[in-house]
């Protein structure tokens, strides 16, 4: 496998890229876990750490499901574990114990009966001790249940696939400025945070490449999660189909009550635990290949975020099942040029602008984003400083790559939307963010 872009930044004593060496995550704790009983492990030492994951833009120009760009807007997940206590079997899975021959970990047994308290800012389960608080984008619409929140349910899946639940006595605060449902990789960042949370909390000692295998089967495609995990401008592809594994993972993660019960955090109304036996499939190792691409330092990412959302599922549903050879060749030619041109200096605006064109997804999605066609017609001559423009991810955000006049380019796009009738029958309000390319990727900060 080509080397993953782990050398894109250097760690410091307190902060490092999630960088694994010799098959282990760099930040794995050296604390020894003691076996307290046949199904309980405990370490009295309090642990605190913060996971920081960048937003991302994907589908850059012709790079549908291929190119990703990490952005200087971050999801942070702050974690306090008041001494490690686990119910269930030892953390093993791939590291030497009880994953089944089918490659699936069985449901941990004998969870105890929990009680729960809820309020507007957090949900506590006294059996698991998992408390979630959240601030940021669409705070009133984000679940605080550990088995429903994308960060923690991803962590549950990864942990349970290794035959261990998440530890008890865990307090999690999520700060998420990344807009949801806008094409800035909010779900990809949450998934990356979730796999790292499981690795840190359960001391699984997984490499970044192995964590990416889990992220891929949850997220489904490599562009956003590769950019968020590794940082910078990245390209990636899948070595094998993940459809079957991804479907099985989706089924176990979609069953909130059963997932919670498998982690020892759910009970029915009469106080006895009710568990539908779930299997948590281990993804095939080395599912993807990820390569860092050069990015010209003077280029910035201007992201214009409209006030309406666009579900990725809907945006994917409008794509055709087949494409003409001419359209595929159109994208391939431009993709080959773009991946070089964006790293060259001096920058060649006309070439980059032309190479950002796409015939695979934007023409089919444009009717879902009012004003998009007019916005994509902006060019370096009509909008000085602009060198390339495209949808960000599945939309509706627009990504403009600029080398000067960054705010002015954003204002031009904002003005087009203001004069476009949106889903509510009014002009579309939007927000402009001038962002740098985040070269560091996901990091863990330890106190």
UniProtKB/TrEMBL annotation:
Its EC number is 2.7.1.39. It is an enzyme of class 2 (transferase). GO terms for molecular function: ATP binding; homoserine kinase activity. GO terms for biological process: threonine biosynthetic process. The keyword Glycoprotein does not apply. It holds the Pfam family GHMP_kinases_N. Pathway: Amino-acid biosynthesis; L-threonine biosynthesis; L-threonine from L-aspartate: step 4/5. It catalyses: L-homoserine + ATP = O-phospho-L-homoserine + ADP + H(+). Residues 150-232 form the GHMP kinase N-terminal domain. Residues 1-14, 95-127 have a biased composition (Low complexity). Residues 1-47, 88-127 are annotated as: Disordered. Keywords: Amino-acid biosynthesis, ATP-binding, Kinase, Nucleotide-binding, Threonine biosynthesis, Transferase. Residues 356-413 form the GHMP kinase C-terminal domain. Residues 21-42 have a biased composition (Polar residues). Belongs to the GHMP kinase family. Homoserine kinase subfamily. This is Homoserine kinase. It comes from Synchytrium microbalum.
């Amino acid at each position: 496998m080509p080397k993953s872009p782990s050398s894109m930044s250097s760690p410091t004593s307190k902060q490092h890229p999630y960088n694994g060496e010799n098959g282990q995550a760099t930040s794995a704790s050296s604390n020894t876990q003691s076996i307290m009983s046949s199904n309980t492990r405990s370490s009295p030492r309090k642990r605190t750490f913060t996971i920081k994951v960048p937003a991302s833009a994907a589908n850059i120009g012709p790079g549908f499901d291929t190119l990703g760009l990490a952005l200087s807007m971050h999801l942070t997940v702050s974690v306090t574990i008041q001494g490690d206590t686990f119910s269930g079997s030892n953390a093993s899975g791939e590291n030497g114990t009880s994953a089944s021959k089918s490659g699936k970990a069985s449901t941990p047994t004998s969870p105890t009966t929990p009680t729960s308290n809820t309020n507007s800012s957090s949900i506590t389960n006294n059996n698991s001790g998992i408390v979630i608080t959240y601030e940021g984008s669409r705070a009133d619409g984000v679940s605080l249940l550990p088995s429903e929140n994308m960060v923690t349910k991803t962590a549950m899946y990864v942990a349970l696939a290794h035959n261990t639940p998440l530890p008890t006595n865990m307090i999690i605060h999520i700060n998420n400025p990344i807009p949801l449902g806008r094409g800035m990789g909010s779900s990809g960042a949450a998934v990356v945070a979730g796999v790292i949370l499981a690795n840190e909390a359960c001391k699984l000692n997984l490499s970044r490449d192995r964590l990416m295998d889990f992220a891929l089967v949850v997220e489904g495609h490599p562009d956003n999660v590769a950019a968020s995990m590794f940082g910078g401008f990245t390209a990636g592809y899948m070595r094998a189909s993940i459809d079957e594994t991804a479907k099985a993972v989706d089924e176990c993660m979609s069953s909130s009550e059963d997932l919670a019960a498998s982690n020892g955090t759910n009970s029915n109304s009469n106080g006895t635990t009710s568990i539908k036996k779930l299997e948590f499939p281990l993804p095939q190792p080395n599912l993807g290949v990820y390569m860092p691409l050069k990015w010209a330092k003077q280029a910035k990412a201007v992201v214009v975020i409209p006030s309406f959302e666009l579900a990725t599922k809907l945006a994917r549903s409008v794509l055709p099942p087949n494409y003409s050879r001419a359209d595929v060749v159109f994208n391939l030619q431009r993709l080959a040029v773009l991946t070089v041109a964006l790293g060259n200096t001096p920058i060649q605006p006309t070439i980059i602008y032309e190479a950002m064109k796409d015939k695979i997804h934007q023409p089919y999605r444009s009717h879902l984003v009012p004003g998009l066609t007019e916005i994509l017609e902006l060019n370096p001559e009509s909008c000085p400083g602009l060198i390339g423009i495209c949808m960000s991810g599945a939309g509706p955000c627009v990504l403009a790559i600029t080398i000067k006049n960054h705010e002015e380019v954003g204002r031009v796009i904002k003005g087009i939307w203001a004069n476009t009738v949106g889903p509510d029958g009014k002009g579309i309000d939007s927000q402009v963010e001038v962002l740098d390319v985040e070269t560091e990727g996901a990091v863990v900060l330890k106190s």
